[in-house]
Amino acid sequence: MRLRQIEIFHAVYANGSISSAARALNVSQPAVSKVLRHTESQLGIRLFDLVRGRLVPTDEAHALFREVDEVFHRVTSLQQTANNLRNSGAGHLRIGIVPALGLEVLPQAIADFRLRNPEVTFDLKTIHHSDVLRSLYERECDIAFGYDPPAHPRLTLRKLATGKLVLIAPRGRFDKHRDSMAMTDLAGCELIGVSSSGPIGAIVAAAHAGAQVELREVAAVDTYYVAAALVRKGSGVAIVDEFTARATATPQIEVIPLAPPLEFGVHAAWLEDRPLSKLASRLVDQVKAVLRADVQRPLRA
Question: What average pLDDT score do residues 290-296 get?
């Protein structure tokens, strides 16, 4: 399929009719119909059936769309990047970020960065620990920020800061004069768990095993800010990274340091054979500055 055929098929599939696709593409209906018929003839399959005046995708169309949609978005990203380079003359950065760093750290870093580089544009993609290498390899992002990304021969890692895990709990759940909590102090607590195979999950699991603590997991979530929301509503306690704790802090949540401390690294990652541009390197420095300032802020109000 040629790019024009991909564009037409994508528009018809997404809009549900030739007329709507023509309006979306700002072309005539006969032009859309002609390309669509040619595509079906060339592929040797029927892509749409007419049902009560509406085009309904066939099974073959559904299967094809999954591939076409990926190509379509990659072409759109390429066009956007070319437009940004042409119009601003300064560049465009594609960034992968773990959800916790996307709450406050990266938004602050970008805001500070744009004060000196207002012409730079960004694509931001939320990724999880296991997605770092794939996102970089498939060019979904140029640089990724995460917690202890997995080591790999193709990855270059730069450590930006050391973070700590903390306990968050509904205010008043524990003695207000308590300065810290040991894992053994959590025996019998109702826990909001984070179902992740990432490094923080591994650190918490090891600490639980070492302390031989029995916890009742009342909910399992994928992201730490959802865990914080459940804690805020009184559903239990949770162990989260300090950046999530600060970003989601409310009068309803108490943040308590853990003793002994459980630490993790915050890294920037990129592919070894795709070195960072000067622009990306400056952004990494900016993220590092925000992280360093953040870890110096007090955890407790």
Answer: 92
| Residue 192 · residue 223 · CB < 8 Å | no
CA gap 139, 137 in Å, rounded: 5
What would the pLDDT profile of 206-235 be if each residue is shown by its tens digit?
888 888 877 788 998 888 889 999 999 999
* pLDDT averaged over every residue in the chain: 87
pTM: 0.69
Looking at the predicted structure, is the pLDDT value of residue 135 above 70?
yes
| DSSP letter assigned to residue 181 | B
Encode 65-101: b = buried (16+ Cβ within 10 Å), e = exposed.
Answer: beebeeebeeeeeeeebeebeeeeeebbbbbbbbebb
| CA-based nearest residue to 73, from 148, 25, 6 | 6
> How far apart are the C-alpha atoms of 100 and 94, rounded to whole Å?
18
Cβ(242)–Cβ(147) below 8 Å: no
Query: What is the C-alpha separation between 33 and 91, in angstroms, rounded?
Result: 38
Which runs of consecutive H residues, i.e. helices, occur in the chain? Answer: 3-15, 18-25, 29-43, 59-88, 105-116, 132-137, 199-211, 224-232, 242-247, 278-295
Rounded CA-CA distance 221/51 in Å is 41
Compute the CA torsion angle 290, 239, 268, 296 (nearest 10 deg). 30
* CA 56/CA 72 separation, integer angstroms: 20
Domains of the chain: 3-87 (1.10.10.10), 89-160+265-295 (3.40.190.10), 163-264 (3.40.190.290)
∠ CA(91), CA(291), CA(274), 5° rounding? 40
